[in-house]
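Researcher: I'm preparing a figure for a lab meeting and need a structural model of a single chain. I don't have an experimental structure, so a prediction will have to do for now. The sequence is pasted below. Please return the structure as tokens so I can convert it later.
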Amino acid sequence: MIAKVTKGRRASGALRYDFGPGHREEHKDARIVAGSVPGTPQQVARIIDRHTKRRPDVARPIWRCSLSLPDEDGVLPDDRWAQIAEQYVGRMWGADVPWVAVRHGDDHIHLTVSRVRWSGQLASDSHDYARSRPIVRALEREHGLTDAEARSDRVAPQVSGPERAAAQRRGSDQPEREQLRDLVRAARDASAGGGRLAFEAALTEAGVSYRASVAKTGRMSGYSFTLPGWTDRKGGQVWAAASKVSRDLRWAQLGSVLGTPDPRTQWRLPAQQRPEAEAATTTQAGPPSRRDVSAAAARSRSVTVPPTTRAPGPPGGTVPGAAPYRPGQQPGQHRGRGR
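Model: Understood. Here is the structure written out token by token.
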């Protein structure tokens, strides 16, 4: 069971959504299955909102939570959902809060809870996410439901309902991101240690299109993937960044698995980072290049010869140990202080 928490200002808006058509006309046969406030949906909303006005200092007094089940748990009857809702709210907030549970689908319910207790005191929502998790796990065990936390893939981002529905409209039983997850992981495992060329060849063979993000400096930052036929409503191709397919496909992880750098981009790397730089230091040096000669000449011009004791020579003459000649300097002329 998955608990998704949000917070709001008024119960009226929350219940209008619960009893409305939904974002995709998915709300069917909406009804109240449990709660501590009697009446019709409109009456329940007015009672809760009137009560929360006792605490005008609270910006968001309405606490909302959807409890949803995976397909493996099937469709529960209303009385079973009512029992789950009462146990969840009681353990999360206690008995002294106005609340209502609405069901408008087979696999989930919506809870609307006022943090302003019937006594007028405010129920703290501090660490509510952390407090909710063990309650949900306990209810799963008590009601024989699937452990959603163990079932979910925390490395791979979950596919949303709208994305799953869009894939079905395109005639695909499995959403494209889930297909990419399997195909790209298989290509990664098959090309481990072979570098980018081997990985990209494996992607092409699997029918996966890819785009590599490489900076001008040659630094690789990651991939984006797509599949044939994966388009949006306007017909544009949909691309998914590797991190949105699965976090273990980000370049920080993927690059360490692939290993060998791609020779197509080695020339863009700084010289000291290229594979041949290390090898060059261990091989016998050949004839100096023009670049090496220029560098050596520059170093020689920067050398300062220490002064030596010598007899004065003739003006303009050459004396061993004399200061080096500088361009533009007249014979016998020396630079120094006091000249």
